[in-house]
Amino acid sequence: MPKTALDIQIKTLPHQPGVYQYFDADDKLIYVGKAKDIKKRVSSYFTKHHDYGKTRVLVKNIASIKHIVVETENDALLLENNLIKKYQPKYNVMLKDDKSYPWICIKNERFPRIFPTRRVIKDGSEYFGPYTSMKTVRTLLDLIKGLYQLRTCNYDLSEAKIEAGKYKVCLEYHLGNCKGPCEGLETEEEYHSNITAIREILKGNFKDSLQQFRKQMKRHAEAMQFEDAQKIKEKLEILENYQAKSTIVNPKISNVDVFSIVSDETYAFVNFLQLSYGSIIRSHTLELKKKLQESDKELLELAITEIRQRFNSNSKEIYVPFKIDLGEEVKVTVPKLGDKKSIVDLSKRNAMYYRMDKLKQIKIVDPDRHANRIMAQMKADLRLSEEPRHIECFDNSNIQGTNPVAACVVFKNGKPSKKDYRHFNIKTVEGPDDFASMEEVVYRRYKRLLEEDQPLPQLIIIDGGKGQLSSALKSLDALGLRGKIAIIGIAKRLEELFYPDDPIPLYLDKKSETLKIIQQLRNEAHRFGIEHHRNRRSKSALTTELENIPGVGEQTIIDLMKRFKTVKRIANAKLDELEAVIGVARANKVYNYYHKE
């Protein structure tokens, strides 16, 4: 389609809420989006400069546009979600979840059976769920079985057939698991009162069942039926124990959906908790694969629509970590403190654990993908122009002002490259001057790399604040590398990241992988530097002491250290042991030095 025709289409779009669809030259749907104002949103694709490459490619491939106007924003969300699921356009978020979830069915029959199923049949039966695991379903069914005596047979218990004596009670009746409605030993009214109580338990409301059991126990006790009272007491304990395990928030928080999101460059993970009567009755995490640079807000809105639709949730209120647009039918709350905030934090923790498990699996199965993701994340977090595949970190060590040294550690693809680590003995600086020392080692390191035509890093990290960073920058300026290598300083106390010519530090999320790698680099540089510093100090100390012995030279000291390892062992050695290593004359000198008395 000619470009002019596309321009005409854009100009005629309505200023209404709805869904827009982009088609390519082959009339294939490549993207679906929703908007409060269709014309404004679509126009932005063609008027803005897009930093993200995939968005530019999407715009380039748009040949025609279609739109659907709807009444409300909520309708737009639902329609967008349905179209994405149906057509799976190339540039839309991918919803990675194709499971068939289990339900608990209360069968539509005279004496309803209760059983698990993965098929929802529209025959008038009630379905509770879907549940995110079969384990939850079995736990609930075991609880119900322990509390109420329900039939498990599939007989047609019509009134006429029971009166005709068509059925006989089975083993379940004799075991006390069923009250025998097949022989008319339990009335329909009594059976349905149990079903009503079970319905409430499946909704998360234990209050009515607890009250009912307490009344029954009291009646049995008053009638001196202590055995029956004890049975009811056991049921009460089962129910109270289950309630205690499931109630982890304020019981006043009822019929609420809670959502949170954790995302990186490629994936987003949205956790959903459903609350009823203070209990979490459902937890599920949805994985979304990003195709364009979708914001957390856009992803969360899409995920909430999908999850509520999938799990048939009609809750009128949702808790989320930040403000989102879901139309006027749902109340959106962003809790700031108390129990409500705690439950949002719990949801986020679930999303984070789910993401961590996924990343661990990827790390094992596909390490290259893991490294690529980390590099892309670091590039975005640190505002770099390229991925920091090669990072070098510098640290100074001069404990108590003696033996100043520096260390340079190297990470490649996010992992230590120990063969590339380097130690530096400070040569041009007198006394403990960290700034001058940093300037010297950075200059020496990159002068050598340039002379040997070795690859330069994409990122330099300086362990220190603004002063250390400024010193390192002087060396880069002297070598003509300013602007060619990204460089940042990390201050120890608050983990502040400083950039050249920027007085305001960057603070990364304390749990971010980027900060963890920077901290690992800094700690490794510190360890490596301290190790070298200790070696220099110990060599300096022993050399000074042995050199004080008249007639003992450098080769004698080396021979003694090879044999005895420490100065203390040399001092405690017997004369014949020393003679065996350095001869009689020198042995006497060393022995007499340590045994003057």
From TrEMBL:
Q: Highest taxon of the source?
A: Bacteria
Q: Where is the UVR domain?
A: 207-242
Subcellular localization? Cytoplasm
Keyword list, A-Z: Cytoplasm, DNA damage, DNA excision, DNA repair, Excision nuclease, SOS response
**Family the UniProt entry places it in:** Belongs to the UvrC family.
Name one molecular function that GO assigns to this entry: excinuclease ABC activity
Any idea where the GIY-YIG domain is? 15-93
What the protein does comes down to: The UvrABC repair system catalyzes the recognition and processing of DNA lesions. UvrC both incises the 5' and 3' sides of the lesion. The N-terminal half is responsible for the 3' incision and the C-terminal half is responsible for the 5' incision.
**SMART domains attached to this UniProt entry:** GIYc
Q: What is this protein called?
A: UvrABC system protein C
Among the GO biological process terms of this entry, one is: nucleotide-excision repair
A cellular component annotation (GO) from this entry: excinuclease repair complex
Q: How does it assemble?
A: Interacts with UvrB in an incision complex.
Q: Pinpoint the UvrC family homology region profile domain residues.
A: 262-476
